[in-house]
Amino acid sequence: MPGKTTRSRVLVSVALAAALASSPALSQTSEQEWGPILRDQMLVSYDCEVAFFSQVAERNVNGEVIVIAKVHCIDKRTFDAYRPGSFEAFEVHPCENPENRVC
Q1: 38-73: burial string, b at 16+ Cβ within 10 Å, e else
Q2: C-alpha to C-alpha distance for 76 and 55, rounded to whole angstroms
């Protein structure tokens, strides 16, 4: 029954993807801490009203929370933001070509 094994693998893959997709609850909790700071910094420094964040990565390195995120403004501009430590400002770099997924 090779079809049944393949189907089981697909179901397991779908379940794993769903679990990973639902795990951003931890990121959302952390975003509650750094999100308003980055939103304020973007508004003041770049006149960017943040629509949303994407490609968010949070890592704990030697007790410091490092944050990397792509910032999407309401006016369609995008920026890469990086915060090397919990008490530091974000380093922000504009994306020259918003169609470029990696800038």
Answers
A1: beebbeeeeebebeebeebebeeeeeebbbbbbbbb
A2: 16
pTM of the full structure = 0.66
**Does residue 19 carry a pLDDT above 90?**
no
Q: Is 79 exposed, middle or buried (0-12, 13-18, 19+ CB in 10 A)?
A: buried
Quickly list DSSP for 33-48.
HHHHHHHHHHHHHH--
Q: Tokens 């400002």 label which residue?
A: 89
20 to 28, 35, 92: CA distances (angstroms): 14, 21, 28
Q: Partners of 69 in the beta sheet?
A: 81
**Over residues 64-89, mean pLDDT:** 94
